[in-house]
Amino acid sequence: TKRPPPLRKASKRLTCHKRYKIQKKIREHHRKVRKEAKKRGRKKPKKDPGVPSAAPFKEELLREAEQRKKRLEELKQKQKLNRQKEHEKRRKLEAKKNAAKIKENVEEKESSSKSKAKTNKLLDKNSKKSFCRELRKVRRFNYFYII
Hints:
The chain has three helices and no strands. By secondary structure, the protein is mainly α.
């Protein structure tokens, strides 16, 4: 059976006029984007000014802030551990699936190898070696030779 010829990919060649036109459009687009960004202005994240030293409950506020930070860190750690556990579960499930597939493949190969061995034995019956083997058996059991 003949294979059909592979489909050809479209050529990437362009006329210079078209290529320069595309580059120009790209430049204009980038220019517009930069202009819009300038109009909107930069938004820097505001820095935390901290607690003024004249505040009456400065130590308490600092402790609370520290506790908040610790809670956030603990939450992040818990989430990270949960993600890792989920990942391990998935990996174990995949490993079990792969093991089952491998077992099936091995069983299939074994059954196919057994059937191949049977066919090989059948084929061997017709070979010269098997003929000689059969002849020797006949000679052993018979007292006379057929010439």
